[in-house]
Amino acid sequence: MKQPLLDMRNIVKSFSGVRALNGVSITLGDGEVLSLCGENGSGKSTLMKVLSGVWPYGSYDGEIYFQGQQVKASGIRDTEALGIVIIHQELALVKELSVMENIFLGNELGSCVSLNDEMMHSRTRELLAQVKLNISPDTLIRELGVGQQQLVEIAKALNKNVKLLILDEPTSSLTNNEIDILLGIVQELKGQGIACVYISHKLDEVLALSNWVAVIRDGNHIATKAAAELTQNDIISMMVGRQLDELFPRENHQIGETILQVTHAKASQPGASRCQVEDVSFSLRKGEILGVAGLIGSGRTELMQCLYGCYDGDYQATIELSGQTLQIRSQRAALKAGIAMVPEDRKRHGIVPIMGVGRNITLSILDRYTAWFGAIDEEQESHDIHDAIARLKVKTATSELAIKNLSGGNQQKAIIARFLLTKPKILILDEPTRGIDVGAKYEIYKLMFALVKEGVSIIMVSSELPEVIGISDRVLVMHEGRLKGEFDHQGLTQEKIMNCAIKEAESA
Ligand SMILES: Nc1ncnc2c1ncn2[C@@H]1O[C@H](COP(=O)(O)OP(=O)(O)OP(=O)(O)O)[C@@H](O)[C@H]1O
Ligand SMILES: [Mg+2]
C-alpha cells in the first residue's frame, strides 16, 4: 500500500488527569480532505493541536508519522518546517500590522535569501490573488472582516509551502459568500495535492469537501468512513450516539400580550454617512420567539446593542417595556430592566478567559451574593453554579477550570447560563448556536422553548435560516439598517427571507 502522507496512531492526551483523547488514529493521503466531526468538547481541536506541535512531543502518548518520518515536534515551528500549518478556531493575526507584515511575520527569517520590500509586496499580491482577496498588501488587519482575515491566514499558510493545511472551524463566522470562496480555495488546494484536515459543525460543507469523515465522541475514535457513503444523518448519529429524529424541536407555547415596544430606533457611528440602524420599530410579545434575519452588516446586531445599552456610537430609541418607557444607556440598566443579551462575539464581549467557568457564570449577578458587609455567600454561589452547569450540560472538569480551556461550544453554553441567572424578561441571543454541535444546538432550542413557556420573551438574531424558520414564531428581516419584512413562521421559506434580505442590493 502507498505510504500515507499523515499517520497518527493511538493518540492519548490528558489534561490534569482528565482524558481528552483516548487512543485516536487517523491517516490521510496527499491531496485528500479529511473532516473531523464530533460534539463540542469531543477532542477535535486537541487532536489537531497535538498534530501541529502546540502540544509538543512528550506531552501526549502515541505516534505521528508524516511522509513516513516520525514527528517529534517541540513546537509549531517544527511542524511548519515539515509543511503542516494550522489555522486555529480563534484567529491569530496581529491586528495593528498590515496584511503583508502578517504574512511574513515569523517567516521572513526562515529563508536564507532575505526578501526586499518590493519582493515581499509582489509575493503578497500573488498570494492574495490565490485566495481571491482584492485588497492592498498594506491594508491593516483590523480594517478587515473576519472572513477576509480567514483568507489572509490561508494566504499566510500558502507562503509557508504547506503540504497539510488544518482548518479548525473556519466558516463559523463567515457570510455565505465568504464560505463559498473558502470552500472553493480548499478544493483548488486539493487539486494541487495539498491535503487538508477540516473541522466543522456544518455537515453540508463536510460532505461537499471531504474524501473521509472521522468521527470522535468523548475522545474516542468512533469511525472513519468515505464521505461518499455517508449522509448528514449518519454523521449525526455517530456523533451523538443516538438518532436525532428532528433538528428543531418546536413546542407549542402560549404567546401573550405585547411586552416590548421599540419605536424609531436609530444608530450611527460619529461621522458616518449612513446610519447602521435607520428608524426601526417593532414589538415583542410575552412568551414569543422573534427571529431576526438579514445579511451581515444589515444592522441586526447594532439594533440589539441599542436595546442592551452597549452600542458604541450615537443611538436613540423609544423603548417601552411592560408599559414603562425606559432610557437604556448601559448594560447595567438593561439588566436591571430585565433585558439580557448573549453577544455574538463571545471572545470580545463575553468571557473573561482566565477566570473560572463558575465565576464566568455568576459574573452578572455577583451583587446578589454580597451581603451588606461585603462578604460573598459562596455556598449560594456554588449552588447556583452547579445548577447552571447541570441545566445547560456545560462540559467542564471542574467549575474552577479557566473558561478559556473549555471547547468553543461549552464556552457559549456557559455564557448563556450567565444571562439566564439574571432572570431576564427579555433574552436577546445573537447567533446563539455559532460553533455549536448539533446535539448541543438541540439542547439550546429545548431550553429556549422551556424559557418561553415560563413567560420569557426571546429575540434571536441568526444567520442560519433553517434555525430562524425552525425555531421562531415570527421573523423580522433587516436590510441596510432598515426593517424590510415581517413574517409568520407558518409557510415561511428560506427563499422568502433571502428575497427580502437582498432585494434592494440586487436592484441597486
Ligand atoms: N488546555 C486545556 N486544559 C484543560 N482542559 C482542556 C484544555 N484544552 C482542552 N481541554 C478539554 O479537552 C476536551 C476536548 O476539547 P477540544 O477543544 O479538543 O474540543 P472540540 O472537539 O474542539 O470542541 P468544539 O467543537 O467545541 O471546538 C474538552 O473537555 C476541553 O475542556
Ligand atoms: Mg474545537
Main traits of this protein?
six-stranded mixed sheet; binds adenosine-5'-triphosphate; single chain; Rossmann fold; alpha/beta; 3 domains; 508 residues; binds magnesium ion; 34% helix; 17 helices; globular
Plain-language structure description:
There is one protein chain. This protein is α/β, with parallel strands linked by helices and 508 residues long. It folds into three domains: 235 residues, P-loop containing nucleotide triphosphate hydrolases (Rossmann fold), CATH 3.40.50.300; 145 residues, P-loop containing nucleotide triphosphate hydrolases (Rossmann fold); 79 residues, no CATH class. The protein contains 17 helices and 20 strands. A hairpin with a 2-residue loop joins strand 9 and strand 10. The mean pLDDT is 90. Bound molecules: adenosine-5'-triphosphate and magnesium ion (MG). The site of magnesium ion (MG) has 6 residues, from helix 1. Magnesium ion (MG) binds next to helix 1. One of its GO terms (cellular component) is plasma membrane. GO terms for molecular function: ABC-type D-xylose transporter activity; ATP binding; ATP hydrolysis activity.
Alpha-beta content class = alpha/beta
Helix content: 25-40%
Hetero groups: adenosine-5'-triphosphate, magnesium ion
- pLDDT < 50 stretches: none
Shape: globular
User: What does the radius of gyration come to?
Assistant: 24 Å
Give the strand tally: 20
The averaged pLDDT comes out at 90
CATH topology of the largest domain: Rossmann fold
Mind summarizing the main beta sheet?
A: 6 strands, mixed
Pfam families: ABC_tran
Membrane topology: Peripheral membrane protein
Organism: Marinomonas pollencensis
GO molecular function, one term: ATP binding
